[in-house]
Design goal:
Blueprint (H helix, E strand, L loop, with lengths): L11 E5 L2 E8 L2 E8 L5 H4 L1 H4 L8 E7 L1 E6 L4 E5 L2 E5 L3 E5 L5 E7 L4 H4 L10
Antiparallel strand pairs: 1-2, 2-3, 3-9, 4-7, 4-9, 5-6, 5-8
Length: 126
């Protein structure tokens, strides 16, 4: 099996909205490996689970594989192609581009990620 897709030893394993998550504690943060399948779109697969109009979680990490693009509520777009560091502010929709899964390694402070990393509570133009 591809080690980038294999279960992470010592992590909690979950699946939410078709996304496979491995989550491990690191001090007062979490390290997450998320595998987003081809065809995944937040507004299609996660919105019904979460119940908000947009993803209100900040994502800070590394796109190890795949291609992710998205759009904030104000129409501003972002595009990440692996390998690339990514920072996605709250208030977005995002989707996997192409036939390969997107694998993201994130550092996460749960509901405090944006604040702890100095990001706005919701995307805004500078």
């Amino acid at each position: 099996m591809d080690s980038l897709l294999a279960p992470v030893k010592g992590a909690d394993h979950q699946e939410v909205g078709g996304v496979r998550l491995d989550v491990a504690r690191a001090g007062n943060a979490r390290i997450k490996r998320a595998v987003y399948p081809p065809g995944f779109r937040w507004s299609t697969h996660m919105k019904p689970v979460v119940g908000t109009a947009h993803c209100m979680h900040a994502h800070v990490g590394f796109l190890a594989r795949g291609h992710v693009t998205g759009e904030y509520a104000d129409g501003c777009r972002f595009d990440y192609v692996a390998p690339q560091v990514l920072v996605i502010e709250p208030g977005h929709d995002a989707w996997v581009v192409g036939v390969d899964p997107a694998v993201v390694i994130e550092v996460d402070a749960e509901g405090e990620t944006a604040r702890r990393f100095g990001l706005p509570a919701q995307h805004q133009h500078a």
